[in-house]
Amino acid sequence: MSKYIQNSLILFLFIFVISCGEDPTPKPNAFLRLSYPEAHYKKANLDLPFTFDKNKFATEVDVKKMVGKENYGVNIEYSHLKGTIYLTYKNINEDSKNLMDFIKDAQNFTQKHTIKADEIVEQIYINDERKVYGMFYEVGGNAASQSQFYVTDSVKHFLTGSLYFYAKPNYDSILPAAKYLEKDIKQIMESISWK
After folding, report:
1. Which of 7, 37, 164, 172 is the most buried (most CB within 10 A)?
2. How far apart are CA 45 and CA 130, in angstroms?
3. Are 161 and 188 within 8 A, CB to CB?
4. Neighbouring C-beta atoms of residue 42, cutoff 10 Å
5. Cα torsion at 191, 55, 122, 96 (round to 10°)?
6. Contact 128, 119 (CB under 8 A)
7. Predicted structure pTM score
8. pLDDT digit string (tens) for 107-157?
9. DSSP 3-state assignment of 178?
10. Alpha carbons 162 and 136: distance in angstroms, whole number
11. Summary mean pLDDT of the chain
12. Taking the domains of the chain in order of start, what are their residue ranges?
């Protein structure tokens, strides 16, 4: 037997002997642990016909007044979560005729998400003390917006809000961030104070 074959055989036996041991065990599935800072709210007293509590974790608040009207757009940005809560304020006419149009528009806007949504859960909101009445919608599935709401005093003020992320909607991926911001949306609803 040649020295080359003899050395190869010894090497093969050596590898075979040291490779024998415990059976390999597969590693368990790992899940990404996403944690967000505890929410701390502060009153956002902006030049608007209402005030609300805003999470300090929000990185920017941008207010735009619509020309010639008492209507405003407010964007609450969460750059760390790559999401924004969009608020739209509209003034109700003195005769309140446009209130039903505003409510229908808000409801229709939410219903447009039924194409991609697995479910839409409605939660009525009523606060007689502060005269805030409305609806919160939790949208499940791969819809563009996971949370939407509207609130009004039924006389002068109407506010809608919706949550959007800067990414293709993949419900499983954005669910932790959507749940975190859902609490902020509910805090906005619960802290609305009309001026």
Report:
1. 164
2. 17
3. yes
4. 10
5. 40
6. no
7. 0.80
8. 988 887 667 778 889 999 999 999 999 999 998 888 778 899 999 999 999
9. helix
10. 10
11. 87
12. 60-194
Residue that is written with structure tokens 């959507």 in the block: 178
Pick the CATH number of 60-194 from 3.40.1000, 3.40.50, 3.30.70, 1.10.472: 3.40.1000
Length of the chain: 195
Q: What is the largest CA-CA distance in the chain?
A: 107
Q: Which residues contact 192 (CB under 8 A, 6 or more apart)?
A: 50, 51, 52, 130, 132, 151, 159
Q: Long-range contacts made by residues 109-118, C-beta under 8 angstroms, separation at least 24? A: 109/148, 109/160, 109/162, 110/137, 110/139, 110/148, 113/139, 113/143, 113/144, 113/145, 116/141, 116/142, 116/143, 116/144, 116/169, 117/141, 117/142, 117/143, 118/171
Q: 């597969």: which residue's tokens?
A: 26
- d(CA 111, CA 7) in angstroms, rounded, equals 75
Q: Can you read off the two tokens belonging to residue 145?
A: 């917006």
Name the strand (E) or helix (H) holding 63. strand 60-65
Torsions phi, psi of 95, nearest 5?
A: -90, 0
For residue 170, give every residue at least 6 positions away whose Cβ sits within 8 Å of its Cβ, in sequence order, or none: 142
